[in-house]
Structures are given as structure tokens and as C-alpha cells.
Amino acid sequence: QAPTQHVAKAQLPNVCILATGGTIAGSAASNTQMTGYKAGAIGIQTLLNAVPEIHKVANVQGEQISNIGSESMTHEIWLKLAKRVNELLAKPDVDAVVITHGTDTLEETAYFLNLVTKSDKPVILIGAMHPATAISADGSVNILNAVNLAASKDAKGRGVMIAMNDVINGARDVQKTNTLRVDTFQSPELGYLGYFENGRPVFYKATTRKHTKDTEFDVSELKDLPRVDIIYSHVNDDGKMAEAAVANGAKGVVHAGTGNGSIHENAEAALYDAAKKGIVVVRAARVPNGPTIESTEAWDKAGFVHAGTLNPQKARILLQLGLTKTNDPAKIAEMFGKY
Ligand SMILES: NC(=O)CC[C@H](N)C(=O)O
Questions:
Q1: ipTM score above 0.90
Q2: Domains plus CATH for the chain?
Q3: Which residue in 54, 75, 117, 270 has the fewest CB atoms around it within 10 Å?
Q4: pLDDT grade, residue 271 (50/70/90)?
């Protein structure tokens, strides 16, 4: 669809919407179909034309970055997106960026951008759980709330945010917690940042971890990210997956351990061997809640880093960015204490 023409109003903030795909742009054969649709079928203009109310709060411009199911997100699209976000936010006449995204990896893209965006202007991610063609499609209200948040003076300097289902989540702590429900995005550990009250964003807390312009990471010259594999532990784990990660050239490994980041005794040797070869090993947990903390086991003495409250997929991102700076586990551990 062609953009509907709206005259820019000087008194309104300028918000760029970058579309990457997902259910929010999903199209199904009937309006009762909630799964089995094609994600990333509808272009950004069609999405925006469905929510004309956004033009009352901001001058909005849409741009298509990709149109994929986010389960197929790549480093290439991440870097393109991050570079575009930084380019846009560096312009004095751009006030905020909203990104539409599939929900499957939304938390990962949000945390990645939380660490590499070089601006304190608002960056907000949204998706949907019901396709755009469904009864009670949730995408339209999420777009409206996101633009309200983008236009809000309160939104600056809070890190990348997720605006879905009438709540505001912070990129670091948010997780997709349910495969189907519209209230899937939660921060079960540390809570929401705020609510949309009649569409107006109201903040109740802020993160204490460094983000956006206060991080040391810079993607402007990067062509790819270091390989980091996640290894999911289980009964009878024998370390073969860790060996495979090393053989495949991983520069880092996140071990999604049982309990508080525990490692099967039959898998330890493979991970010690990886660490001896200079591969940074991070201990995270497959348990959805609670931090992975330091350990009195030989693990810490071998230089394994503990992930705190970052889940394995987020620990992977911080480790990847950390590895663009250093492969000293002590320095990477400091980053896990900071971000
Ligand atoms: N609700 C969704 O967005 C899921 C659709 C698709 N798997 C994606 O993540 O893009």
C-alpha cells in the first residue's frame, strides 16, 4: 500500500517505524485463524494505515528493514537494523524509533539494541500474538501504545522498551513466557517498568543496569558477531555438544545449566577443555527464574562466568558483544555485572 499522506505538524515529535516482520504483519486465510498463518506478509504502510490515530500524537514514517518470521532472525539483519537505528537517532529531527518484530526472538533483538544503541532517545519494540487479519488482532493497539510511548517526554533514557498488551517491559528483563497468549511478554524476575493507562505511558520503576549510550559496545564497523553457542544441559549430558561447539569454531559458549547453573559431571571435562583453548564459558540456567550466581565449585576457578538474571539467549548476546572487546573471562565477568 502507498502511504496515506499526512501533513507533518511542527509541534509533534517525529517517530520512525522500522518493520522487520512477525505476526504483527501476519496474514491468515480466515479471521478465526490464530496460528498457521504467514508471518511477515503485510508491509509497513498497510500496518500504519490501519491505525490512523497515531498521526494525532506524532509525525510517523515507516520503513521496511526485513519481512521475516523472527525465528529466522540473523546477525546480518541485526547489524543492518542497529546501524539504521543509530543513523536515524543521530538526526536532530528524529525523536524516537519504533520497531515491529516477530515475538519469537523479540526479547533478543531488544536486548541487543539495548546494548548497542548510541542514543538516549526512545527505542521501542512491538509485536503481536494474533495475526493482523484475526478477530482481536493485538497489533493495532500495540502500535498506538508504542507511538504514544515514543512521543512521551518520560520515555527518554530508559533503555530499549517493549510495549505490548498494555504494559511497558525493559529489554534486559523481558521474556516471552507463553507460546500462545497475548500477555506473553513478562519480566517475571524484576517486573514491568510501567503501564499504559488509557494509552498514556506511566512509569513505576527504572533499570539499574547500564544500557544504550552508556555501554562500551559499538557495532558501526562490525560485519558479523562472534560465534557463541548455547548448550542445554539435561540428564545424561556427556559433553558432546560442548565438544561440537569447540569443533565448530565457537568463541564462546553459554551453558544453560540445571538449577543454579549446574554442570553435569560428565560434561565438565569438555567445558574445561574449551576454556583452556580460550573459549569463554558462561554459566546460565535453564530454570526460568532466579539468578545464576557464583559457585564454589571448580567452575569459577576455571574462569567460567555466571550470567546473573540473564537467560541463556540474552547471556549469549552479552557474551557476543563482550567478545568483540576481549576474550579475558575476568573482563567479560565485569560486563555481566554491569549490563
Ligand atoms: N507471534 C509471533 O510474532 C510469532 C510469529 C513468528 N514465529 C515470529 O516470531 O515472527
A1: yes
A2: 14-214 (3.40.50.1170), 228-338 (3.40.50.40)
A3: 75
A4: very high
